[in-house]
Amino acid sequence: xxxxxxxxxxxxxxxxxxxxxxxxxxxxxxxxxxxxxxxxxxxxxxxxxxxxxxxxxxxxxxxxxxxxxxxxxxxxxxxxxxxxxxxxxxxxxxxxxxxxxxxxxxxxxxxxxxxxxxxxxxxxxxxxxxxxxxxxxxxxxxxxxxxxxxxxxxxxxxxxx
Length: 161
Fold this sequence. Notes:
By secondary structure, this protein is of the alpha/beta class.
């Protein structure tokens, strides 16, 4: 094995695991964020919009996890995740910042998005983010790897977004 290849492979595997956990978090979040269980029905599904800027193997894994969610739990509970993959992270960040600044002509903010910390902070300050720790119970949060959740905590706010 060439030097450095093992570390690269480990990085891809760790990112895949992280995406898998993100998929599980997405599933928990989608299943718990609707206020009344009787509102979720397969006959009248809720569509959740999601933006991300994954590419290559990460995009393939994310697409696979979301497609699996849509045809299993999503179909069973009446939830459809509609994904928009934006291949340029900086373009997505520019749009998120413009939305946070209430610039005219911007698209509607998606229900879920990948975001860099500065964009997340601006969205939070504009009142456009919901803290995940207010949507998930302590038991649900305890089922995740703590380091995974720690990555989403903004130290300035002491909240997970």
